[in-house]
Design brief:
Blueprint (H helix, E strand, L loop, with lengths): L2 H11 L14 H23 L8 H31 L1
Length: about 90
């Protein structure tokens, strides 16, 4: 994993200013790898959490939370991949 690429993305989105509501622009060509890998890994984690043992305390709430986090990622990742491919084809 390339930590510098991820750190550059975090800097671009303003992670050091968590109280800011300012919109940010991300250079997709520069940050595509970090953005794609980070979101894909997060989605994989959410899918794992959805598979929790149903007898584990709090499993149902964990599954519901994971589904709530996964839905936007599932909708956004195909769009992001298509845009990254489009940039690569230019």
């Amino acid at each position: 994993m390339d930590f510098d690429a991820h750190r550059a993305l975090l800097d671009a989105i303003g992670w050091s200013k968590p109280d800011s509501d300012d919109a940010v622009q991300i250079d997709l060509e520069q940050h595509k790898w970090a953005l794609l890998t980070t979101l894909a890994r997060r989605l994989a984690v959410e899918h794992d959490l959805m598979q929790s043992d149903q007898h584990m305390p709090g499993a149902e709430q964990q599954r519901e939370t994971a589904m709530r986090f996964a839905r936007p990622l599932e909708g956004f990742l195909p769009t992001l991949r298509a845009r990254v491919k489009q940039i690569g084809d230019q």
